[in-house]
Amino acid sequence: MLRAAGVGIGDEVIVPAFGNVEVAEAVIQAGAMPVFADIDPATYCLDAAEVNAAVGPRTVAVVAVHRFGRPADITRLRDVGQRHGLLVLEQGESEAPYDEIEERRAHAAYLDGRLRGVRTPVRGIGHTYQQYVVRVPGNGRPDRDAFARAVRAKGVECRVPVKTPVHRMPVFRRDVCLPETERAADETLALPVDASLSKRQMQRMVSACNALGGLLQPAF
């Protein structure tokens, strides 16, 4: 898409650093330079205000990535694009059949109402819960990683969705301040909400998380 739009050498393209190293790689392959902007902490997608602040004289495009089944705020991003004459591209996520999405939403609603000690996802229109991503409060990554090990030991599958932000990877390393991206990388944990999960499995997940989550308090 970048090449078809005429993006090339000397151009800059604004992309998120929270996950999807392939997006930054695609910009490089097109001959352009990726510029990283911070995310909205509620959606984990590009924050339109941060994109606006990152626009420079060589910026020609923005790539919005929809994250964890939660769509980016394309309306606001397109407003920024129109203001600066930028192309706004979208990278979507592969989706499941409608019935499976509805089951994931039901599981997400169950967890929303019962989990304690972790911050549950912010609800939003169109959220399909491709991943159910919570935040583990505390002092950042050590608490999140300890929490993950503990719930895995109780038979609950979980995964860290983004281990290293792209702007911290050696090949893309940039001296840029992205506080929400850094915080999300340190605190987030994806819990399963697959349609195949039984009620008993969901209850076990809640019990395992609640037994630990209340012990972790936000750092001040």
From TrEMBL:
<keyword id="KW-0663">Pyridoxal phosphate</keyword>
<dbReference type="GO" id="GO:0008483">
    <property type="term" value="F:transaminase activity"/>
</dbReference>
<dbReference type="InterPro" id="IPR015424">
    <property type="entry name" value="PyrdxlP-dep_Trfase"/>
</dbReference>
<dbReference type="InterPro" id="IPR000653">
    <property type="entry name" value="DegT/StrS_aminotransferase"/>
</dbReference>
<dbReference type="InterPro" id="IPR015422">
    <property type="entry name" value="PyrdxlP-dep_Trfase_small"/>
</dbReference>
<keyword id="KW-0032">Aminotransferase</keyword>
<dbReference type="InterPro" id="IPR015421">
    <property type="entry name" value="PyrdxlP-dep_Trfase_major"/>
</dbReference>
<dbReference type="GO" id="GO:0030170">
    <property type="term" value="F:pyridoxal phosphate binding"/>
</dbReference>
<dbReference type="Pfam" id="PF01041">
    <property type="entry name" value="DegT_DnrJ_EryC1"/>
</dbReference>
<protein>
    <submittedName>
        <fullName>DegT/DnrJ/EryC1/StrS family aminotransferase</fullName>
    </submittedName>
</protein>
<comment type="similarity">
    <text>Belongs to the DegT/DnrJ/EryC1 family. L-glutamine:2-deoxy-scyllo-inosose/scyllo-inosose aminotransferase subfamily.</text>
</comment>
<keyword id="KW-0808">Transferase</keyword>
<dbReference type="GO" id="GO:0000271">
    <property type="term" value="P:polysaccharide biosynthetic process"/>
</dbReference>
